[in-house]
Q: What sequence folds into this?
């Protein structure tokens, strides 16, 4: 016997319709690439989105067409999210940090027919043009006063959108139709394409808005520092409209001072970014003596949240909340929303909970699998390969003939983790980054987080280095804080009470800059290249 409910599809345009009906006066604010602050309402945005949809249709955009975007978090890219998806076309957000070679690869692999870009990236686009096989039209996300920055032959976004008629009758189609696509950062091999359906992103939006997740609600002000090209800014362009949250887009200025100005002037209550962004903001606060009177919560994801950041922002009465997910998961899989009894604990007792990646969102299943393939218990001790499944988790990569899932239908994340009896998951390392020493596994993340507690350490990365007796031993690589000059011995002594003896690094080396990937993660692959001939002093 089947249910007798209406078979209405779950489409992202229905999120837009809902917002226009209920939150039409809510603001959307942007620090534009051109400089000035742009401010309008959801109702204003809807008018422009319908004009954009008509202009795209007149340009020849068909259902299923891929449209590339290389841009900062702005109201213009936000408009593209809804206009492109509403037509049944596919928004392909291109990460400019992939570099020219990988950027050209993903645009060609996706077969983008149109490419929109902020003028910041005009040199990149001009360099890419000769190698792009499918792009028919280029459009610079700017206005007529900045045509000279747009590149030869490009459409100008504000002129283009003005062509379109107001009002659009959004079509219905299968909810499993593709709406967006992103590519993995390609740290090993070519980037891989992940294609999201309307159904997946609508379901994730519902889950992200729950009190036990991001907990967004009308009256909140969200500043997404995490880029729209990084898995749809963690789904916030959809979640914010679903709940009537004011959005503040930072544009290209992501330094501590620039972010602080928006956090303060727009009275931002919630922000989201990777740890390197939070570190930059914290350093600005410490230097300037400024406060954060409005910000109450910060989401940190992309890599493990260091204890030093939790403690640093606690001084400003800001709770840093850890989340975990992947491009392959649309992306949010877990959020660390602390139970009431934990929230009431003193900071020192609360931090061990905050260091965890959190509990799975509804409909996300997680399991830990050992090297022998057996499922391990959620006992908070057993660690193994983290595997997931759910309605917004990848089934297969785009244009691949290789299996993406395990034989029994789970996606192997490549992370090593533990899950406790209450459902809290904690990443202990990437499977390729754990250090095997004397038959035991050592977490590079644990060492990095402990090192970041040292007052003289700005950044830290840990890799395994060959040892003739122990197979591998940890090498700690450090960037010193400005004005600080810790020695290797000082840092090693500092770490001893914080780590098990097996995890004490055999050596500490100092460098000027730690290489970061396209999403702000420490590039262990590059560190291994830099230190490929390194010999441990004790070896």
A:
């Amino acid at each position: 016997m089947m249910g007798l409910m209406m078979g209405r599809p779950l489409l992202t345009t229905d999120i837009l319709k809902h917002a226009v009906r209920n939150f039409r006066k809510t603001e959307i604010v942007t620090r534009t690439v051109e400089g000035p602050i742009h401010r309008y309402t959801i109702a204003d945005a809807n008018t422009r989105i319908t004009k954009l949809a008509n202009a795209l249709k007149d340009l020849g955009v068909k259902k299923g067409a891929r449209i590339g975007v290389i841009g900062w978090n702005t109201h213009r890219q936000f408009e593209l999210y809804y206009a492109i998806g509403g037509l049944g076309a596919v928004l392909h957000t291109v990460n400019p940090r992939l570099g020219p070679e990988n950027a050209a690869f993903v645009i060609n692999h996706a077969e983008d027919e149109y490419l929109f870009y902020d003028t910041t990236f005009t040199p990149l686009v001009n360099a890419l043009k000769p190698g792009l096989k499918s792009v028919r039209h280029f459009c610079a996300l700017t206005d007529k006063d900045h045509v000279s920055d747009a590149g030869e032959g490009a459409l100008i976004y504000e002129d283009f959108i003005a062509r379109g008629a107001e009002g659009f009758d959004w079509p219905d189609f299968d909810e499993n139709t593709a709406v967006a696509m992103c590519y993995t950062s390609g740290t090993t091999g070519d980037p891989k394409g992940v294609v999201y359906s309307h159904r997946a992103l609508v379901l994730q939006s519902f889950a992200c808005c729950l009190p036990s997740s991001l907990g967004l609600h009308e009256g909140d002000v969200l500043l997404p520092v995490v880029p729209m090209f990084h898995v749809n800014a963690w789904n916030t362009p959809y979640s914010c409209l679903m709940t009537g949250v004011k959005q503040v887009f930072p544009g290209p200025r992501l330094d501590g001072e620039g972010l602080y100005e928006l956090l303060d002037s727009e009275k931002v209550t919630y922000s989201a970014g990777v740890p390197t962004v939070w570190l930059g903001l914290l350093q600005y606060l410490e230097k300037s003596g400024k406060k954060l009177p409005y910000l109450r919560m910060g989401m940190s994801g992309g890599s493990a949240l260091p204890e030093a950041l939790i403690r640093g922002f606690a001084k400003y009465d800001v709770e840093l909340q850890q989340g975990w997910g992947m491009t392959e998961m649309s992306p949010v899989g877990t959020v660390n929303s602390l139970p009431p009894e934990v929230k009431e604990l003193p900071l020192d007792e609360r931090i061990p909970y905050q260091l965890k990646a959190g509990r799975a969102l509804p409909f996300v299943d997680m399991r830990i699998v050992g090297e022998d393939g057996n499922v391990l218990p959620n006992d908070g001790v057993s660690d193994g390969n983290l595997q997931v499944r759910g309605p917004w988790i990848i089934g297969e990569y785009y244009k691949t003939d290789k299996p993406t899932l395990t034989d029994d239908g789970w996606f192997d994340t490549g992370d090593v983790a533990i899950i406790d009896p209450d459902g809290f998951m904690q990443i202990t390392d990437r499977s390729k980054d754990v250090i095997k020493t004397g038959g035991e596994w050592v977490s590079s993340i644990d060492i990095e987080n402990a090192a970041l507690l040292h007052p003289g350490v700005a950044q830290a990365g840990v890799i395994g280095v060959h040892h003739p007796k122990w197979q591998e031993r940890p090498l700690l690589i450090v960037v010193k804080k400005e004005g600080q000059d810790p020695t290797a011995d000082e840092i090693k002594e500092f770490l001893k009470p914080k780590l098990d003896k097996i995890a004490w690094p055999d050596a500490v080396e100092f460098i000027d800059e730690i290489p970061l990937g396209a999403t702000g993660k420490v590039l262990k692959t590059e560190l291994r290249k830099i230190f490929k001939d390194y010999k441990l002093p004790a070896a």
